[in-house]
Amino acid sequence: MQGTSDPNAEFVDAAALCGHLVPAGSVHRFLAEHRGRLFPDELFGDLFPSDRGRPSVPADVIATVMVLQALGGLSDRDALAELRTNIAWKVAAGLSLTDEGFHPTVLTLWRNRLRASDAPERIFDAVRAVIAETGVLGGKTRRVLDSTVLDDAVATQDTVTQLIASIRRVRRLSPAAAAPELVGHDYSDPGKPRIAWDDTEAREALVSALVDDALVVLAGVEGLALDAETADAVGLLALVAGQDVEPGDEDGTWRIAPRTAPGRVISTVDPDARHVHKSVSSYRDGYKAHVAVEPTTGLICSQRLSPGNAPDGPIGVELMHQEAPGRQVLADSAYGSGETRAQLTRRRHRLAIKPWPLADTGRFARDDFWVDQDARTATCPAGHTVALTPANNAVFGRHCRDCDRRERCTTARDGRTLKLTDHDADLVEARRTRRLPRNSPKPNLARPPRRRREPPTPRHPRPRPPPRLGAHQLTTATNSSTRHRSHNPDGRALNPAEPPNTARGSA
Description:
Elements: H1 14-18, H2 27-38, H3 59-72, H4 76-85, H5 87-93, H6 105-116, H7 122-134, E1 142-151, H8 159-173, H9 175-178, H10 200-221, H11 228-243, E2 245-247, E3 254-256, E4 274-277, E5 283-293, E6 300-307, H12 312-320, E7 328-331, H13 338-346, E8 350-353, E9 370-372, E10 377-379, E11 385-387, E12 393-395, H14 406-409, E13 417-419, H15 424-435, H16 471-485
Parallel strand pairs: 1-7, 7-8
Antiparallel strand pairs: 1-5, 2-3, 4-5, 5-6, 9-10, 10-11, 12-13
Helix pairs in contact: 2-3, 2-5, 3-4, 4-5, 8-10, 8-11, 10-11, 12-13
């Protein structure tokens, strides 16, 4: 049954004792003040249809933890560690200082119930509604676009495992698919066939037999009226049977293709998971979470979940379509493609997006060439001008033969060919703007402005005061001065009645 929060504050309530430590305008203060309106018990009533059993953790506490967890990109265990030890989290969730929280698997239970419900995004919808009502984002026009990888818990499956699992599932759901006799494998056994896996011919024969069995199953259900679950299973089998194989050397045979299909399904347990490449060295499996965040408050204005191989740019454009025109968009180079910049510019957004970098080859790059799109010409660093082709390319081949800068430009035998994209001018301007110095009249939106520090005023050394002399030192100095004044430069004693010589060396 559904649990509810106690409206009466405890003696060691975190908000009552430590609420002043949570900064005003922060997400934690926002949740502490509006948690009851954001996540009322009625909003989650459909998740607990029964009135029997042990009460669940209150919905407002679960929803608050989920919001803070998504904001920090934390795992379930890390989120519960923060709830147990972080005062700001306790204030936001309305807990006491001595509350130990709950087990991390409770979050998994709630997510599964939300996913299976008719409104799986109700938590974020409620946050957006209260944000719009309270005007907490009023006057804040900046939005940060970013994405993070969500690792999948399923194991990556090879082609043989996927084919066997998909055939077994379709035969279990459809009697028509179970009728034909299959010879590639005993499909009552979920394990792999027992063959000599180091034998190339044996592996190719097994793959060919499994693909033939898949084609027989697909032919058996063709034209039949299938329910949604069976139709999904049949579609997955057709996808798995064709993504990793190609025709063999002999007619009617199949073999594993020596390439990886784009958007390859990595597991029949979770068909939507994909390989993720955040960088050349980072290789993971799962999904991507895309967010648009207001940087001052940290509030998530919009979000999307996509397969791991989905590009960031187009989804970032979708997130910004929900915003009013004139926002300043801050993002890294994953959102710096020409098409993404063009679509955001059409919405009259101001771009502070890092452009795509150029490859450092040690030779002349694209920005070393001058392109006039109006005249449809391009000029190389050596001063040679050619006309652009209908494919928007600049071919400098004949000018490169005797050019003294050829070694710094290209190693191609036919000379340099400059290939321009549809949004080439926008990308060149974005890179030029990022290279501008800070005191340039045109602002560099890709870097936050910094206050220029004035040089310090030079300080002149003060004259040192004369040293203080003691009684003994003063007597000694006086006697020494008297002896020096009572002799001529040549050593003769002076007559007090005679005036002293003013010129050194006079007779």
